[in-house]
Amino acid sequence: MQYGQIPYVGKPVSRIVFGTATPILFAAFRSVYGDAPDFGDRLNAAFRLLDDMYAEGVNCFDCSDHYGEEPLGEWLEARGLHDKVAILTKGGHHNRWRKRVTDYDILHDAHNSLAKLKTNHLEIYMLHRDDPEVPVEPIVDVLNRLHDEGKIGAFGGSNWTLERIEQANDYAVKCGLVPFTVSSPNFGLANQVEDPWGGGCVTIAGPANASVRKWYADNHIPVFAYSTMARGFFSGRVSSADPESAKRVMDEPGLKGYACPENFERLRRCEILAKEKGMTVPQIAMAWIFNQQPLEVYALVSTSAREKMRMNVESSEVHLTSEEVKWLDLETDR
Asked: What is the pLDDT of residues 97-121, one digit of tens each?
């Protein structure tokens, strides 16, 4: 496993981050504070999964105020791992009634996350969504308040545009405050051609976003990339020779966001390179993510199998030539 150093995080962070939005963790979440008769079984299953991920070298776990925190907090306390694990959690997600990027909402969600995760410090805190109608100044102020109180370390935005991050950081620098030092957009080999959830998602994938990726690299802001495998598109169960296979494998958001002709061509090239290198399609897609120098990428990965996480870790060590990287992303032809 490769590890990196994130500003304001006092421990190494695994370059593969385990995403807790999995069925096993969701089942445990629904039971943690309930009276379900199988509560113990569900929580034990969650503990086994988290144990497996940690054993493979993962020391950073991604969750949010509406998934993953409860079972993760129970596991961290039971295993005594708070000092060894970096928590990445998110707040400020909108609901059906209103957008939630106010100082009240941020403070409310952060304090709830601290309680559910059974800790007094969150290593990485992100705002799950943005509301461009809210000025950045009070957002930066309240995040700095949490940082100064020692409740959060690094902070940033998930699904924040480059323009809004620049506004926030310009204000922080002008006022001598801590700026956004992390970001979590969609990024992977597949180009996200349509917002999977119908609004508020930000991607930096695809040729059109090359200048955005350069900005991240030039400003040394790590990218915590979500949907790196395009919601199953690069799982190895979708075939470029059978586009209908995507409908049998992927959910509706995945189909909406990634099942397009240009991505099927990327998949075809993954299949070719995987055969040449004796690897699998998901291994090639994962290797591509970690060959984006000088962009510093941390891949958010969800799986319910230890063997698959081990393959992801192995893939993160694979070197691809610059020609292979460009060819996979349709920048060149062989």
From this structure: 878 788 889 999 999 999 999 999 9
pLDDT digits (tens, 9 = 90+) for 230-252: 999 999 999 999 999 999 999 99
Contacts of 101 (CB under 8 A, 6+ apart): 92, 127, 129, 130, 131, 134, 139
Q: Decide if 176 is inside a domain.
A: yes
Q: At what angle do helices 281-289 and 261-277 cross, to 10 degrees?
A: 100
Whether the predicted pLDDT of 35 surpasses 60: no
Instruction: Give the Cα separation of 282 and 260 in Å (integer).
Output: 18
Split into its structural domains, the chain has a count of 1
CATH, residue 196: 3.20.20.100
Residue 167 in domain: yes
Is the pTM here over 0.70, yes or no?
yes
- What is the mean predicted confidence (pLDDT) over 28-36? 60
Give the type of residue at 294.
P
C-alpha distances in Å from residue 14, one per residue of 36, 110, 163, 310, 316: 34, 23, 28, 13, 11
Q: Which domain holds residue 111?
A: 3-235+283-321
Helix axes 23-32, 69-79, angle to 10 degrees: 80
| Sole residue written with tokens 């926030």 | 168
Question: d(Cα 175, Cα 168) in Å, to the nearest integer?
Answer: 11
| Residue 333 located in a structural domain | no
| Token pair recorded at residue 32 | 């943690």
Of 66, 71, 80, 63, which Cα lies nearest the Cα of 27? 71
Establish if 275 belongs to a structural domain: no
